[in-house]
């Protein structure tokens, strides 16, 4: 009859066979970080046999493993007899193994989760540590792909399909946030609204595809005329909006006139036909007396309406006098 706690020699062989055949890396290191156990998983993925690895120092076998990071990771394992973990999102891999999985061939190296296990001797001291190395490449790639898809969906939800500018909903959210920032900090920001003059005539004369091309060209001209800190959007149809942070109405007028003249000098060629067009613009500077971003937008619309009524192809800065029109 076997004594309690003792393992039959045949059972030990089965245990060792199992540890060799599992699809998980198993490494045992002593206190000098010399390799004591190196299973088949480690042989197959590292290209190093047990004969080449046993008794060798881990950092000699894998000089690209950061000693500082590794020591910090296993300190609690040796001193506190507690497990430690490394996740692929924190560190993609411990061992730089090639990825040979056909489904996840988009990544060159194997993503790994690693568990550091204290191995306690009969004296109660941790004289060795075990490393369990898990290939989580499929999980990592699937998560990365999902994140990529979600980011693209988020981008598309904010983007106007025709012009690739910010769409109305997102642009208005940006305007609302800018209004709150200006309220809080007293920053000097202007809103510029403009639309294409006689756009219906463009559609009626040249067709809707030509109209779409005109809108695309206007969007590109606007992007060429602004700073990276400015926020451009297609407000709807042939109308566009521009948020100009840290810009007075007078300086915004310079931007408006530069854009207006650029559009005036532009000719769109569609189906061999030349299309000329102009834009009208309205500017409203932030005012601390405004109740909300909608009231701010209404002021720029009033200035735009004045430009239309004044013959089109010009720019107007909002003043209180426009309220009587």
Can you walk me through this structure?
The strands form three sheets. This protein has a five-stranded antiparallel β-sheet with strand order 2-1-5-4-3. It has a five-stranded mixed β-sheet with strand order 7-8-6-11-12, sandwiched between helices. The model is unreliable at 1-13 (pLDDT under 50). A hairpin with a 2-residue loop joins β7 and β8 (239-244). The chain has 325 residues and is an alpha+beta fold. The protein is elongated. The chain folds into two domains: 9-144, Beta-Lactamase (2-Layer Sandwich); 158-324, 2-Layer Sandwich (Alpha-Beta Plaits). It has helices spanning 9-21, 40-46, 50-53, 58-61, 67-80, 137-157, 168-185, 199-206, 208-225, 249-264, 293-309; strands at residues 25-30, 35-38, 84-86, 112-120, 126-135, 190-196, 231-236, 239-244, 267-270, 273-276, 279-285, 315-317. It has eleven helices and twelve strands.
Sheet with the most strands: spatial strand order: 2-1-5-4-3
Task: Look at the structure and give the mean pLDDT.
Answer: 90
Order of helices and strands: HEEHHHHEEEHHEHHEEHEEEHE
| Assigned CATH class of the largest domain | Alpha Beta
CATH superfamily of the largest domain: Reverse transcriptase/Diguanylate cyclase domain
Largest sheet composition: 5 strands, antiparallel
Radius of gyration: 34 Å
Count of helix runs: 11
Number of strands: 12
Query: Shape from CA axes?
Result: elongated
Low-confidence stretches: 1-13
Please report which band the strand proportion falls in: under 5%, 5-15%, 15-25%, 25-35%, 35-45% or over 45%: 15-25%
What is the CATH architecture annotation of the largest domain? 2-Layer Sandwich
What would you call the structural class? alpha+beta
Percent helix range: 40-55%
Q: How many domains is the backbone divided into?
A: 2
Q: What distance lies between the first and last C-alpha atoms, to the nearest angstrom?
A: 106 Å
